């Protein structure tokens, strides 16, 4: 059986300026330093303006915390005002980049085709995409959440070679549970995450599907993370609001201590 190292990633969204980011990462590093946390991978997805500061801190202090961006341009460079390219993120030694977050899909009209181009841009420049998928409330209420989410997985990974797809991280984030305090029940989250793994097996192979880490995201907190992480197809969490409180995020990272 494949062992998947859990990935706990804090998505700061449009919060924390670069000075606040430094203080926040320092607090995380201090709180996590007294105990070996190799068994869990920790990452922060910071605003673009924070990345250089976070890089300097992580490199300088040799921190185990990984970092990345919340979006990437599908283009490598050129006249795309306001965009940030893969080469720019790679130069900052980002490990991860979130792609297709529901807030990008909703507020920036990102389609599966755009998300797919961004996933490919990430791989082209050595970044690992965290492909975000998940249904809106009306889709869940109509009972189409699995089908909807699997279509986003298939669209996001379209034409991607197995050598790349085997390292993708998929974040299942039901839109109705994001920032609402309404956490998806652990059994409901497991149902969709298992279906995502099944889709990966269908698209590639069971061996590849067993390697891919699938996160749950949506109102994850220290009080519910252990129950979510106990599910066999959930390999981590993509944490929004609760990742802005360093004490709370550390408790989430240490879900096994609960
Ligand atoms: O990327 C993170 C998700 O959007 C979840 O956000 P949340 O933890 O604030 O619900």
Description:
The longest helix is centred in the C-terminal third of the chain and has 18 residues, at 186-203. 43% of the residues lie in helices and 14% in strands. Helix 11 links the parallel strand 7 (213-217) and strand 8. It has helices at residues 18-33, 51-60, 86-91, 102-107, 112-124, 137-141, 145-156, 162-165, 186-203, 206-211, 222-229, 246-253, and strands spanning 7-11, 41-45, 66-69, 96-99, 128-133, 169-172, 213-217, 236-239. It contains twelve helices and eight strands. It is α/β, with parallel strands linked by helices and 258 residues long. The protein has a single domain, classed as TIM Barrel, CATH 3.20.20. Helix 1 packs parallel to helix 2 (51-60), helix 1 (18-33) crosses helix 12 and helix 11 (222-229) packs parallel to helix 12 (246-253). It has an eight-stranded parallel β-barrel, surrounded by six helices. The structure holds glyceraldehyde-3-phosphate. Residues 11, 101, 173, 178-179, 217-220, 238-242 line the site of glyceraldehyde-3-phosphate (G3H). Glyceraldehyde-3-phosphate binds next to strand 8. This is Triosephosphate isomerase. It is found in: Cytoplasm. One of its GO terms (molecular function) is triose-phosphate isomerase activity. Its EC number is 5.3.1.1.
